[in-house]
Design a protein that fits this description.
The protein is of the alpha+beta class. It folds into 4 domains: about 45 residues, no CATH class; about 50 residues; about 40 residues, Orthogonal Bundle (Arc Repressor Mutant, subunit A), CATH 1.10.10; about 80 residues, no CATH class. It is about 30% helix and about 20% strand. A hairpin with a 2-residue loop joins β11 and β12. It is elongated. The protein starts with a strand and ends in an 8-residue tail after the last strand. It is found in: Nucleus. Its main location: nucleus.
């Protein structure tokens, strides 16, 4: 009895054709019957995954590529591998190329573990939205920790619902007279420019930063999750005794800093 088979092998296995039956002893992927005719003698099997090789097989392929100072071609590696492992299905040059690429990118040829799916159920998505509706100032990481859901899944739910994190922008409180004072200052400066009496080298440019021990809002941690900008405000005490105000100034080529910070 004669057996005829057209095989595309994509898994580690040993195939024996005996009297119209196929026996395989070691495979890692499902086998799809592509065509079956004369079940006793003729069949075509097709496997739809890349040929699975063990880590030792892949290391052997890498060793075959580099031989002393000489680098073998992919065709030579394919031939040598078939000679070394005649029982295994023949590999292709594409397989050699993929193993080389994997080693360059990862530094190893081990099979990567598949991570479980992070897809959320409708109830979990609802819990995320309800939590932010109740407290829109809750950060995405706090939400992830409270609901025991990954941070990336939380962000994906917020994006799907067109939610945006609006940041806190610090502004100075202005008294009623501050507007008139600012306008007067601008008018005086413009008049000095027109009279050519303003010299940049005589202008002192100042900047300052305030460090507080408590009561100060960290704007990087302040968010308001909403579908639209509500222009929310957070009022803080302007007078806080437990703070340090650091300033510095530049005038022409001179730098002015507080005496306590000269060593910094």
């Amino acid at each position: 009895m004669t057996n005829t088979g057209a095989l595309t092998m994509t898994s580690t296995f040993t195939l024996h054709i005996q009297c119209g039956t196929a026996k395989w002893d070691k495979f890692s992927s499902s086998i799809i019957m592509h065509f079956l005719e004369n079940s006793e003698t003729l069949f075509v099997l097709q496997f739809r995954e890349m040929l699975y090789l063990t880590e030792m097989h892949k290391i052997t392929i890498l060793q075959m590529i580099c031989y002393g100072e000489r680098t073998r071609t992919q065709a030579e590696v394919v031939r040598l591998f078939q000679e070394k492992y005649p029982v295994l299905p023949p590999i292709s040059q594409g397989t050699v190329s993929k193993i080389q690429k994997q080693f360059r990118e990862r530094g190893h040829v081990r099979q990567l573990k598949k991570h479980p799916s992070n897809k959320l159920s409708d109830d979990q998505k609802l819990y995320v939205m309800l939590m932010l509706e109740e407290n829109p100032h809750t950060s995405s990481r706090q939400t992830a920790s409270a609901l025991n859901i990954s941070h990336s899944s939380i962000l994906r739910v917020l994006t799907e619902n067109q939610m945006h994190p609006y940041k806190l922008i610090p502004t100075n409180e202005l008294a009623e007279d501050d507007f008139d004072i600012r306008i007067l200052f601008c008018e005086q400066m413009m008049q000095m420019i027109d009279d050519n009496t303003l010299q940049i080298k005589n202008v002192l440019f100042l900047d300052e930063s305030t460090f507080t021990l408590h009561g100060h809002a960290n704007r990087h941690n302040c968010r308001y999750w909403s579908r639209e900008n509500l222009h929310w405000m957070r009022e803080l005490h302007t007078q806080n005794p437990e703070k340090v105000n650091v300033w510095a100034g530049i005038m022409e080529k001179i730098s002015l800093v507080p005496s306590s910070l000269t060593a910094i």
